[in-house]
Design a protein that fits this description.
single chain, 151 residues, alpha+beta, 5 helices, 50% helix, 17% strand
Length: 151
Amino acid sequence: MSQKTKIIVLHMKEVIYTAIFAVLALILLILLLVMFHPDKKETKASVSGAIYDAGTYSSPIVLGGQNVNVDVTVDEQNILSISFSHMEESMATMYPLMTTSLKELSDQIIEKQSTDGITFQQENQYTSQMLLHAIENALEEARRPEFHENQ
């Protein structure tokens, strides 16, 4: 077998242009990585999975001129309980649907860990909607800043 010598001719101008474009591509790649790299705070929150600041959060409801608080207790990832505080026995007697409606809503919300898709009976829909609104307000207060829906 005979080997033929191949001669490649490179123009210096083409070599310089190729080097310049390679450097520009490298700079562009570094710039894109820096721009779209997540912040350390966001990474820490998403890795830990913390949605809420743990604690008990209240949302007031005014019934007959008296305040009743709907308390929502959460840990960092779960809704733990929903209950009334500062509800006197006379208020419970005057508004009998409040306790049963809160119990039904509480069971569904704790099971689903969300207020989305909650169902309630037709005869106490207004009571349930008022309680659901108060629960959502308390959960919004408990939510970590990076999980707020308004952003």
